[in-house]
Amino acid sequence: MNFFHKNFIFLLEKKQIVLSNMAKAIGITRQAINEYKKGKYPTYDNLIKISMHLEVSIDDMLTKDLSASEK
Questions:
Q1: How far is CA 33 from CA 21, 28, 70, in A?
Q2: For residue 51, what are the domain limits?
Q3: Number of domains in the chain
Q4: Is the pLDDT assigned to residue 39 strictly greater than 70?
């Protein structure tokens, strides 16, 4: 199972990330981030940037339910 979308939304909320700041920091549009929140998958390059910005491995981002480990 791929947990990207669930983890992406969870980490954005947990870290209280401002989408426009994140978009600027990693060089993508705010609209792209909104699309990722809605279910679109990022390109591999953007997945790397997102993982680095959120300080989580790509493996964890895709294969683990990070919200479950918080409970």
A1: 11, 8, 24
A2: 4-64
A3: 1
A4: yes
